[in-house]
Amino acid sequence: MPSVAVKLYSVFFKFLLKHRLQNRIQTPSEESSPFGVTTRPEESVAASNPSFSDGVATKDIHIDPFTSLSIRIFLPESALHPPEPDSKLQSKTKVRLNVGKADLEQSESLLRRSSYGSSNVGTATTRQEEYRRSSYSGHGSDVEALNLKSDAYRGYAPVDVNRRKLPIMLQFHGGGWVSGSNDSVANDFFCRRISRLCDVIVVAVGYRLAPENRYPAAFEDGLKVLNWLGKQANLAECSKSMGNVRGAVESKKADSNRQHIVDAFGASMVEPWLAAHGDPSRCILLGVSCGANIADYVARKAVEAGRLLDPVKVVAQVLMYPFFIGSVPTHSEIKLANSYFYDKAMCLLAWKLFLPEEEFSLDHPAANPLIPDRGPPLKLMPPTLTVVAEHDWMRDRAIAYSEELRKVNVDAPVLEYKDAVHEFATLDMLLKSPQAHACAEDIAIWVKKYISFRGHEFSY
User: Fold this and answer.
1) Which of 80, 205, 216, 412 is the most buried (most CB within 10 A)?
2) What stretches of 271-417 show up as alpha helix (H) in DSSP?
3) Catalytic one among 195, 289, 339, 402?
4) Please, which residues bridge with residue 74 across strands?
């Protein structure tokens, strides 16, 4: 059973949540604006941090001028390391720098010593810095722009062709459609953990909240971010092709063409963090609670779009205690209707705030994944990992959906955690529990099956 502290916090949490939901239902909202909101005033927000103080840098971007849709990018520090730091790659770098053999040996010696303590040698330290920069670029000035000597990563791409390309994970936060945010303290902590463990670039989506923006606003925002990733990849490739012209005169023309691209599309269109280190052909979707409903919708739309999304390819999705419901109750919906944190009565209020009045139904395609004729065919869905909690009334429907996927030969395992409650791995007070950390590690093990270049050497 959950601890006494969890039970007490659950009572307090449900009291506040019920009060907020009832207020929003009883208070008629003003004319809804398509711009919308992505966070509430009562939400504790973590500021973005472009430095790698804890191994992950973050950056906020408002990607849609017509709505409040925004994203927070989580870039792990591993993205700055070469993919193959072996002796062959180092020897190529040494030749490219045209440094003498004796000087290189001295630099390597200093580098070895610097791992234990700093050196105060003047010229040798300069060589050491030069050697360190060479692992990222053959041009010192470009690496100075990258500013590796400080902890701040300012979004400039190393020019070394051997830089790492990391998979991209779209993450959708929970909150029952009406609360939560991509930049909350809890979501920021969770995304940092996932980014480090999975070694991926996490893009946390700040979708529009209800009741200001009801269905399908949140779903459209999720799909809009996926399409935005495709545009980023195409613009980056276009800019790269413009920059591959050799020769002094041709280089000037290339610079002119690049400037034309910036003028035509806008200076903020190409996001350097993703252009330099993101691999959209290895895209994973991860949704938490109601965010899992959005992830599943985006996965279905990606299947329907097919090659129209190129070069973006959704290779897997992770549904963490999805916010599914239906008109015919399951065993867990009856037995655990008054479960911890999010009981069934409060979740019904949340669905009433999210779905338009004329469309309200517990068998709505956004709510029930098991209704017939819900396209596309399940056999086309990407591999799907489902995480459920023992004391969560939504558990059985999520398991049933996973079973339907397995019937058509989709890799769809279920991880059920004993003595766990809804949002046990993402709720603020439970984030540092051993069970929350173990869940993140389990997700990383499974996800690596589908993002590894070397094949499925990882197995769960």
Assistant:
1) 205
2) 272-277, 290-305, 331-335, 344-354, 395-407
3) 289
4) 58, 202
pTM of the model: 0.81
DSSP string, 306-363: GGGGTT--EEEEEEES-----SS--HHHHHTTT-SSS-HHHHHHHHHHHS-GGG--TT
For the segment 209-267, what is each residue's pLDDT rounded down to a tens digit?
Answer: 999 999 999 999 999 999 999 999 888 777 766 655 444 445 445 444 444 444 344 44
Q: Which two tokens stand for residue 460?
A: 């769960």
Give the C-alpha separation, 388 to 424, whole Å. 9
Q: Is 366 helix (H, G, I), strand (E, B) or coil?
A: coil
Asked whether 273 and 73 are in contact (CB, 8 A), the reply is: yes
DSSP 8-state code for residue 51:
B
Residue 162 confidence class, pLDDT cut points 50, 70, 90: low
DSSP 308: G
The candidate with the shortest Cα–Cα distance to 367, out of 390, 347, 345, is 347
Report the relative pairing of strands 70-76 and 56-62 from DSSP bridges. Answer: antiparallel
434 contacts: CB under 8 Å, gap ≥ 6? none
Q: Is 364 labeled as catalytic in the residue annotation? A: no
Catalytic residue from among 221, 279, 392, 396: 392
- Does 78 participate in catalysis according to the annotation? no
pLDDT in tens, 264-301: 444 447 898 998 899 999 999 999 999 999 999 999 99
Instruction: Find out whether 386 and 395 touch, Cβ atoms under 8 Å.
Output: no
CB neighbours of residue 30 within 10 Å: 7
- The residue from 173, 277, 364, 422 that is catalytic is 422
Q: Which two tokens stand for residue 350?
A: 């949340």
Distance CA 253, CA 8 (A): 67
Which amino acid is residue 190, in one-letter code?
A: F
- Whole-angstrom distance, CA of residue 287 vs CA of residue 291: 4
Fold of 4-81+163-451: Rossmann fold (3.40.50)
User: Please, are residues 398 and 425 in contact by the beta-carbon 8 Å criterion?
Assistant: no
- Break the chain into its structural domains and give their ranges: 4-81+163-451, 87-134
Residue 160 bears catalytic tag: no
- Structure token digits, residue 16: 């506040």
Q: List CB contacts of 24: < 8 A, sequence separation 6 or more.
A: 178, 211, 353
